[in-house]
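Late entry, evening session. Most of the bench is empty. Finally got around to the prediction I had been postponing all week. Sequence below, unchanged from the version circulated by S.P.
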Amino acid sequence: MPVADGKSIIIPCACCGKENFKPSLVCEGFSFVICASCGLVQRNPQPVKEEITSRYSDTYGNDYLSYEIINEEAFLKLQQLALKDAGFEKIEKKLFIDEINEKPAVLDIGCATGALLANLRDRQWRVTGVEISPCAEYARRERNLDVRDIPLEENKFPSSSFDVILASHLIEHLNNPRSFLTETHRILKNNGYCFITTPNINGFQAKFFGNKWRSAIFDHLYLFSVKTLSNLFSNTGFKIESIHTWGGLAAGTVSESIKKIADILAKRLGFGDVMIVKAKKK
């Protein structure tokens, strides 16, 4: 594909591979397009891989570490609630019954400071993380976790290594989400599970705020809907078992009583701001 400039490149649709795009969200200094064939919203042109990874290793990366440390307790609670909604605890119980000879293995990709991994280790999981920001060194030093600081595909994990793979608010940052899910499928055990959390562009907040939506930011290369993310999973060998959404209105935009009602409706009716997909390796 032709290079748009030295730091960005024009690419085909990450889901269907076609190159027929229409304008979608025009933001300050960047924009998103929508695939006319399958509806996937993505940055195009988008920053090249080297530009993306460098943002997490320079001054921005250190700012990110501070941000994650300050918010890790709140983020952990959100992750745990999302996994509970998606049925993680039932899978956990079954794995600990079935895995007689060894503890089940989990990989958390984009694990930040390792708070969730440490929690799972306390619950007797064998834990591994992937994190390309300075958070990786923090997780190794402060929590004695096995966290790799290179992208997933470069780790070359053996096939069928993990019972469960987690990735929260990661897939929207990747240049090639299809390659990511293909590699995830390879390193999962047969009948293993993948849990992916990402913003939902078909949620109420995205529709209401448009290009001012809080997830329409420079660092997000893709904005998935339930449909487009489901298609990407199906195209990479997974079977979708459930999709849950949550988040009706952002805190501070309305009164707490109205927000509570909106959040309940968003979860029940499926128009929440964030979604979690539970998929099984076929």
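Two things to note before I forget:
The chain has one domain: 71-281.
The chain has ten helices and 14 strands.
Will write this up properly tomorrow.
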